[in-house]
What does this fold into?
Amino acid sequence: MTLPSQNRLNLRLERDRIENSSQKIHSLLFILLYSPSPKNIKHSRFAVLLSKKFARLAVNRNKAKRLVHQAIQKNLNLLTSSYDIIFIPKKTIKTKTIKEISQDIENLFQQI
It folds into this structure.
């Protein structure tokens, strides 16, 4: 399951704006950067930011991204306003199940 294209955030275009005007939340599994979406966008958009430091092999990075995207999709209905959100997974996510990841994302969405 991938996120619908309307819920994807293009990091190449939006990363600087979000990093400069964002608020940050830390959890056990993520660092979350979020800022309100521009006024012409009515839905929340998400991106997962992983570096080679997280996992050397692209296969492992892509697996982590897929798990995070799947957990985001399960919890999309919890956000009432539209935000641009960047998830930066911590290395502890490698050993977690989709249920644990989804629970952590649910807690983060409630803090926003």
